[in-house]
Design goal:
alpha/beta; 6-stranded mixed sheet; 10 strands
Length: about 260
């Protein structure tokens, strides 16, 4: 395995962040930061505010209070959105009748998140090569010329995953990215994400199914309307407070961590 690339650059800083909807607090007191190459699990029970937090960090929703900085810049001034990829939980922004193929959707320049900023348009390797690799890794090469309206939910999700992989962004936000795909594709996808992380991309992941994932070298943010834990996976494993929330699930996750360390 290649040595994981990390650096000391603060790529994301969140300070005293809160968000309310209809005068009801969705979350408050969120305070953490990530360096380049970090891998963060954002976890918590249903309705805890995870997806809303992710959308707030991305500027899709406007925070009530607090500070968000991307690569050292306040979010209101940040423009280089192609450094960031986002795979949402639900693909509500796609019109199934839009006359585009899977290849065309995957090769579009990344969304300008939150209606802000501009794109860099710098793919490094040839775009065709990156597209081919991504479609092949996700097992959807045969879908390249299919109209998106002809795809199943799981197939469309994989096209969006391919789009994120093609961009090779510095930070990749993923909100339950494999919820609509079969186990084999899910396993292959997380191997790809692990590889991107080892090459230096910062990963921020919401994923309910953590039973098959190890926590080696990962960070955990646990929220339930407020921040209850942020730290290294090893610290999570030793936390008696987290054991009170997770019960036996904590031991399952930590057992995987110990097994990984003995490989």
């Amino acid at each position: 395995m290649m040595e994981k690339k990390t650096n000391t650059e603060k790529v994301l800083e969140v300070s005293d962040l809160s968000y309310s909807y209809n005068h009801q607090t969705v979350f408050e007191g969120i305070d953490f930061s990530l360096n380049g190459g970090d891998y963060l699990w954002m976890i918590g029970p249903n309705g805890s505010g995870k997806t809303t937090l992710m959308k707030t960090i991305l500027g899709i929703l406007t925070a009530g209070t607090g500070i968000i900085r991307l690569f050292g810049e306040d979010i209101d001034k940040f423009e280089d959105w192609e450094r960031i990829a986002y795979v949402p939980q639900r693909l509500l922004f796609f019109d199934p009748y839009f006359p585009a193929t899977a290849l065309e959707v995957a090769s579009m320049r990344l969304m300008v998140l939150g209606g802000r900023g501009k794109n860099r348009g710098n793919f490094g390797r040839s775009k065709d090569e990156r597209i081919g690799d991504a479609f092949e890794k996700l097992g959807i090469s045969h879908l390249m010329n299919r109209r998106i309206g002809e795809l199943s939910g799981g197939q469309l999700q994989r096209v969006i995953l391919a789009r994120a992989l093609i961009a090779n962004s510095d930070i990749i936000f993923l909100d339950e990215p494999t919820s609509a795909v079969e186990p084999r594709v899910r396993e292959d996808f997380f191997k790809i994400i692990d590889d991107l992380n080892e090459r230096g991309s910062t990963i921020i992941l919401i994923n309910h199914d953590i039973s098959g994932m190890g926590i080696n070298n990962n960070k955990i943010l646990f929220i339930n309307r407020e921040q209850l834990f942020f730290g290294e996976g090893s610290e999570f494993c030793m936390s008696e407070e987290m054991s009170g929330y997770f019960g036996s699930s904590q031991h399952i996750i930590c057992h995987q961590h110990l097994d990984e360390g003995n490989d």
